[in-house]
Amino acid sequence: MKLSNRVLTLAICSAFTLPAMAANVDIYGKANLSLQSSDDGDGQFTEIKSNASRIGLKGTHALNDGLSVVYKAEFQVDMDGDSDDNITDRNQYVGLKGNFGEVLLGKNDTILKQSQGKIDLFNDLNADIKNLFKGENRMSDTLTYKSPKVNGFQFAGTYIAEDDADAEDGYSVGLFYGDKGLKKSKVFASIAVDSDVKGYDVTRATVHGKVAGFTLGAMYQNQESDDGSAEMDGYLLSAKYAVNKNVVLKGQFQAADHDGGDDLSAASIGVDYRLAKSTKLYGFYTSFDMDSAEDKDYLAVGIEYKF
């Protein structure tokens, strides 16, 4: 913990002292905390929860002939004070970007994880899709390549080095279309595959777009363990609607049907109230229906501030 704090402090201080012409450095972050009534299956309790709050450095450094260095060092900060190790690593990499695309080395989200775009309306909260689906992996020892976009299409791949004599290399590849933020296109679509990533093979297809004032999303996923067991078929549906420039209503349903095992589902509703471009208040209710385990329920209000 002390080492992580020192590294983070040194990185931030160094960013402020870099020569103005050396690089484009952005310090960014997000504080997201909620007050919630939680029931993990053992009874209701009240908690203050930090929802993947973070701080980081990122930027580019132009070299020559359209070639640039790109880098990021991001850390998660548990702002509720519950963790002994309140600073942990998130995506941290360095690479090159040019006419050939982008190549990154370090710790990074896999391409399959990135392929979800913005479809998960309750990302980082209790209804985050990682709770029922495999594949939401941030991996160390990765090489990531993203091609230039051609007619809206982009190929991307992650190679995960085994880092152990008895382990196997992993791969995560995908094909994207459009803009995941739906700012430059009205539709984002992707198909991605994991092979031998954290013991699972996963196929995921996603489509997300704007229709008649609504933002709608659908995802299909198939997963199985490396030995061919633990197969699951699942899907996710999400929808949000902007009542006005400040108020957004949203809902999401996720189902995971395990072959010869449990059928699991999660249903969520929520509302966001925008105070400014950087700040919103939110509320949500999430309910998990578990076949052979205790059901789970969460009711929360919170604040998110981005800088």
UniProtKB/TrEMBL annotation:
Membrane topology category: Multi-pass membrane protein
Q: Which GO terms describe its cellular component?
A: cell outer membrane; pore complex
Ribosomal protein listed as a keyword: no
Q: Which InterPro entries match?
A: Gram-neg_bact_OMP, Gram_neg_porin_domain, Porin_dom_sf, Porin_Gram-ve, Porin_Neis
- In Gene Ontology terms, what is a biological process of this protein? monoatomic ion transmembrane transport
Q: Which GO terms describe its molecular function?
A: porin activity
Q: Which keywords belong to this entry?
A: Cell outer membrane, Ion transport, Membrane, Porin, Signal, Transmembrane, Transmembrane beta strand, Transport
Where does the signal sequence lie?
1-22
Q: What sequence ranges are listed for the domain Porin? A: 10-290
Intracellular or extracellular location(s): Cell outer membrane
Q: Which domain of life is it from?
A: Bacteria
Q: What is its main location?
A: membrane
Q: Subunit structure, briefly?
A: Homotrimer.
PANTHER family cross-referenced by the UniProt entry: MAJOR OUTER MEMBRANE PROTEIN P.IA (PTHR34501:SF9), PROTEIN YDDL-RELATED (PTHR34501)
- What is this protein identified as? Porin
What is the organism of origin for this protein? Thalassomonas viridans
